[in-house]
Inverse folding.
């Protein structure tokens, strides 16, 4: 599973964010992903591949509140 780090997450992780493995949690559901790209959003933390997003909630939601740990 892969995702893209948005500016807030890149700032928090520092310059070596690319290639890092993080755990994204929503409630009791979680998914582990590798950060392979960047996202230009200044408001969001992470942009998940649809398969990873679907592990946390329905794609129709579009945006979910999550916790990211590394």
């Amino acid at each position: 599973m892969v995702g893209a780090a948005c500016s807030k997450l890149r700032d928090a992780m520092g310059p070596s964010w690319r290639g890092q493995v993080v755990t994204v949690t929503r409630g009791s559901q979680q998914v582990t992903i590798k950060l392979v790209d960047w996202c230009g959003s200044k408001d969001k933390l992470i942009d998940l591949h649809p398969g990873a997003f679907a592990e946390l909630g329905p794609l129709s939601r579009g945006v979910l509140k999550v916790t990211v740990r590394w």
About this structure: The chain is about 20% helix and 35% strand. Helices lie at 7-13, 50-56. The chain has a mean pLDDT of 97.
